[in-house]
């Protein structure tokens, strides 16, 4: 799942629902797993599949007219419990970016820790994006992490987004927290030696 992140241009999967919580992202019955493998298969499990286990053809992830590595979701994405499995499922399903007008803080950090970029945009930008995707399912969006911009290529509208500088560095360089410490090992040793 570790991938360097610079600029991603992709079509999107729209999920214009507010208050999507972590139990909807990955139901609690899958939380016994201690391995990320296969978690993406159960992303939005109760929406993607009918009670009989067959695909729900009306759910957007099962609609072949939509594709891409960007998920566009309604306000307050990832609320509820702090389960990291929700971020595992999003990353495991191949998403690199989630765009919303608001994220629950813990879920937002879990996404970042799993190399998924949560992009916070204004409500008006989000609604414009949903409209563009509804009009053309292959609408392209460009997410530029170095410049911290997201652009709806159908309209040319662009917004700046915020990201913690440490997490930005880690995403651009494909580093998790341990990799970052290893990368800075000499600085840590030098700091410790100065205090002995």
TrEMBL record:
Similarity field: Belongs to the LeuD family. LeuD type 1 subfamily.
Keyword terms of this UniProt record: Amino-acid biosynthesis, Branched-chain amino acid biosynthesis, Leucine biosynthesis, Lyase
CDD domains the UniProt entry points to: IPMI_Swivel
Pathway(s) of this molecule: Amino-acid biosynthesis; L-leucine biosynthesis; L-leucine from 3-methyl-2-oxobutanoate: step 2/4
Domain of life: Bacteria
Entry's Gene Ontology molecular function annotations: 3-isopropylmalate dehydratase activity
Record field: catalytic activity: (2R,3S)-3-isopropylmalate = (2S)-2-isopropylmalate
Complex formation: Heterodimer of LeuC and LeuD.
EC number annotated for this UniProt entry: 4.2.1.33
Species this chain originates from: Prevotella illustrans
Domain Aconitase A/isopropylmalate dehydratase small subunit swivel: 4-123
InterPro entries from the UniProt entry: 3-IsopropMal_deHydase_ssu (IPR004431), Aconitase/3IPM_dehydase_swvl (IPR015928), AconitaseA/IPMdHydase_ssu_swvl (IPR000573), IPMI_Swivel (IPR033940), LeuD (IPR050075)
Keyword Kinase tagged: no
Function: Catalyzes the isomerization between 2-isopropylmalate and 3-isopropylmalate, via the formation of 2-isopropylmaleate.
Record-given protein name: 3-isopropylmalate dehydratase
């Amino acid at each position: 799942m570790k991938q360097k992140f610079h600029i991603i241009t992709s079509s999107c999967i729209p999920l214009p629902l507010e208050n999507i919580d972590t139990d909807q992202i990955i139901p609690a019955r899958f939380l016994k797993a201690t391995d990320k493998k296969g978690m993406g298969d159960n992303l939005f499990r109760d929406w993607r599949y009918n009670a009989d286990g067959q695909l729900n053809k009306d759910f957007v992830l099962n609609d072949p007219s939509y594709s891409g590595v960007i998920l566009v979701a309604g306000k307050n994405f990832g609320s509820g419990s702090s389960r990291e499995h929700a971020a595992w499922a999003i990353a495991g399903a191949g998403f690199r970016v989630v765009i919303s007008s608001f994220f629950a803080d813990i879920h937002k950090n879990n996404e970042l820790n799993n190399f998924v970029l949560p992009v916070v945009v204004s409500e008006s930008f989000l609604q414009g994006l949903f409209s563009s995707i509804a009009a053309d399912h292959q609408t392209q969006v460009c997410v530029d992490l170095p410049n911290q911009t997201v652009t709806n290529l159908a309209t040319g509208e662009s917004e700046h987004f915020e990201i913690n500088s440490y997490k930005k560095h880690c995403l651009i360089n494909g580093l998790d927290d341990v990799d970052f410490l290893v990368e800075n090992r000499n600085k840590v040793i030098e700091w410790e030696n100065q205090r002995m």
